[in-house]
Amino acid sequence: MTPSQTPPPPARVRIPAPAPAPDPGAFGRRTRYAALAASWLATRALMLHLLVTDRLGVGGVSGEVYVLYRRWYDQLSAGTFPFGDPTWQYPPGAGALLLTPLIFPFLTFFQAFTAVTVACDALIARALVRAGARPGGSAAGAWLWVGGLPLLLHIPYARYDVQVTALAVGALLALRRRPGVGGVLAGLGALVKVWPLLTLIGAPRGRNTRRALLGALGSAAALLAVLALVFDHTLDFARQQGGRGLQIESLGGTVYQLAHLATGRPGRVAHRYGAMEFTGPYVSALAALSLALTGLALCWLVFWRVRARRWTVAVPLDAALCAVLLFTVTSRVISPQYLVWLLGLAAVCLTSGRTSQRPVAQLLLPAAALSALAFPCLYGEVIAGTALGTTVMVARNALLVAAALVSCRRLWTSTVTASTTTVKDATISERR
User: How far is residue 346's CA from residue 407's CA, in Å, rounded to a whole number?
Assistant: First the structure.
């Protein structure tokens, strides 16, 4: 056979690659997500029904949107912030948020406001699901939000605290990978209700923290400048906030009511600055004491940050919850919608398997239920200072104080008193 007649090479036999083995956990995850989605739909339908009917207890919960928010909306649409209005006590970013119903011009103000609130609720749930699906994450955070928010009945949908909580949740979840974005969201939230700025209290030291702080300052300054140029009386809120007294649902208010029950003389209550507040002797002293306690809480947080040595992915989340809890329990005002903030932050903590705040989240659930029991269900009893109303408030505020103390202790022990070996192991794990 000549070289030109060499036989052809043998044909290549292609062996098909084996099909990938099915993920045994995929079906379980899909089932859990479907159950979570179904729970969200069912509970939110119930909350919307309660909002529309608005017949529980003293009623009038949705009137905040129908009357007060609508009045502010009309004033803001005319290019001015509420001026000389004692009920307007919010930073100017709240004005921008109250204009978001403009997104739905084909709806009434009430319908558009509710649609924005429900959408933010859904965004929070979705963000918590995604955070829990990361390595080392947990679905407990999403479940806490989905199951915990309805404990407040329809109050979350009749206030704009869900929208503010969405900014805070977004800031915390973005802080680890995109600190600049997290800072921007925290800054925008701070210009709406101040407290979202506390989401940065636990940011790890270093370049990322500086990015977050610069993002927060930049976004807040930019939004404030735009609002000051577009609207009149942008900073009038500060005058109204400074005159607030002692709300009957606050910790100081509960102490004041217990003192009156012990003496047999009912406390005097008046509607001031959009809330029911105590009037009479010693009220100003208790209000001043509340402010002093808030200052002490801030000092403790600074001291903790200086002493903290162990920084895991859960520490920024845990520190944010601890900080907001401290400022809540020491405030002159503890409205039931404040529990929306705490539930949202607790839910973010539970998305991490390394959180130290699980017992705190467990305490917040009955506190939320008691808040809704106090208002709107038994608010007449609370205003009258009856034994039943006072008992409900004592139980709710005792749970909040216990949650704050447990949160402080667990944050301290997990970051300050951890052994050197534990700190080194945590640092190596974080780098991996």
Answer: 11
> Considering only CA atoms, which of 219, 212, 122 is closest in space to residue 174?
212
Three-state secondary structure call for residue 370: helix
How many angstroms separate the CA atoms of 377 and 396, rounded? 14
**What whole-number distance in Å separates Cα of residue 110 and Cα of residue 158?**
9
H or E stretch including 190? helix 179-193
Element (H, E) at 268: strand 268-272
Neighbouring residues of 337: CB distance < 8 A, sequence distance ≥ 6: 152, 155, 156, 159, 161
The DSSP element (H or E) to which 276 belongs, if any, is strand 275-279
End-to-end CA distance of the chain: 64
pTM of the complete model: 0.90
| Distance from the Cα of residue 409 to its chain's centroid | 21
45 alpha carbon, distance to own chain's centre: 21
* Cα(390)–Cα(278) distance, integer angstroms: 14
Give the tens place of pLDDT for each residue, 275-301: 889 988 888 899 999 999 999 999 999
How confident is the model over 203-258, as pLDDT tens digits? 988 888 899 999 999 999 999 999 999 999 888 777 655 567 799 999 999 999 99
Strands 275-279 vs 268-272: parallel, antiparallel or unpaired: antiparallel
Cis omega before residue 376 (within 30°)?
A: yes
